[in-house]
Amino acid sequence: MTDASALTDLFASRRYFRKFEEITRHLGRVAGVLHAEGNLSKDEVEVLTRYITALTFTFRALSLKYLLVGRDTGRFFGSLQIDQKESGFPVITELMTMANDASQAANHLRNAASGRQLKEQMVKKIVGDHEIPTKLQFALSQRMYYEELAKGDLFWARNDPEIVWLGGDDDRRTLLIHWAVYDSELNLPVIYLMECEDTGRESLYRDQRRWPEVQAHLMAQSLAGLKLMTIATGFDEDFDDLHPKKLRRIHLGPMYSSAYTDQSGPLSDVLRDARSPEGQDWALVWTEERLVSNDVRTERTGWFSSRELQIFKRDPFLIDEGASALDRAVILPQRPYQVLAERAPAGFGSVRKFVVSPGGRVLDYR
């Protein structure tokens, strides 16, 4: 059961959204560092950047929805619910509600006063009645919220698979299939990147039979509790002419902040003792699981037919994880990093540190 906390204070809510605006801006820079050192390809970085941008738009939309939280707007519309004990992110019901709102955004915008009309009414209220036009401000914030939803390109609870062409010929094509979810158990955005080879008669993205099946299969398997080995092996066995060569799963979070979360552990202690100023009291964990095929075996499927199945590399230290590699990193501002470096808590020696300078530059420490 998620320990949800409501941000009912206006200024606390706005600081929370500013914090995530800062964090998501640095995520793209981290992806750039990983690309520069060869850990991510150009296509993978472009896909990741797209999801990070979508996540930024999601937080922007939510910040507009809750822009006047705690003020007397004439109606109760709630406050942002965050996972205070575990992820530090909004709970998944926030994204599910947002998706429902997006489906009705056109109706709301069609029936609502325009932004110009609302601003004119606000001026009249201030000048004529000498009152703060809170209800009109609320109406405008909700209009801006629906306008943001109508633009699209947000990070939803489900972001269905898409294909990027990497190369190949008519007989064997190399594809990057990517998708993402907002995991309901973790309350975290999780991104999947699968590089696979396609030996079907027709290219996958034009195949109206296989592509819907692939999409449905992958979304059904997008659970944090499933090991990459389970996901990749099941995909390999269910689709004879699709061969997964590499599968990545990237967890963006949890987010730690002594002002907003009640997590326990070394990072929480570091942030508490760092006593960082506003905007620098945070740390975000970036975890990547990776599964790689290093060989192929052939299995007969009939008298005159056979198929190839992948043999995935297993790290002997990650047998229980079902992965070839597991990389953990933490992104944090300079002041918390200094406390972390001084304390050197157990278990953090192998964790990569991406340190954000006051100027916004991301520095890499191992």
Note down, in words, how this protein is organized.
The chain has two domains: 4-151, no CATH class; 158-365, no CATH class. Helix content is 39%, strand content 27%. It has helices spanning 10-36, 42-65, 92-103, 105-111, 115-129, 134-151, 210-220, 228-238, 266-274, 334-343, and strands at residues 4-7, 80-83, 158-168, 173-183, 188-198, 242-256, 283-300, 306-312, 325-333, 352-356, 362-365. Strands 3, 4, 5, 6, 7, 8, 9, 10 and 11 form a nine-stranded mixed beta sheet that branches. A two-stranded antiparallel ribbon has the order 1-2. Strand 10 and strand 11 form a beta hairpin. It is globular. The model has no long low-confidence stretch (mean pLDDT 92).
Question: Layout of SSEs?
Answer:
Layout: E1 4-7, H1 10-36, H2 42-65, E2 80-83, H3 92-103, H4 105-111, H5 115-129, H6 134-151, E3 158-168, E4 173-183, E5 188-198, H7 210-220, H8 228-238, E6 242-256, H9 266-274, E7 283-300, E8 306-312, E9 325-333, H10 334-343, E10 352-356, E11 362-365
Parallel strand pairs: 9-10
Antiparallel strand pairs: 1-2, 3-4, 4-5, 5-6, 6-7, 7-8, 7-9, 10-11
Structural class: alpha+beta
Cα-to-Cα separation, first versus last residue: 35 Å
Query: What would you call the shape?
Result: globular
Number of H- or I-type helical stretches: 10
Total strands: the figure is 11
Q: Stretches where pLDDT falls below 50 for ≥5 residues?
A: none
Q: Which percent band covers the strand fraction?
A: 25-35%
Largest sheet: 9 strands, mixed
Number of domains: 2
Order of helices and strands: EHHEHHHHEEEHHEHEEEHEE
Helix content: 25-40%
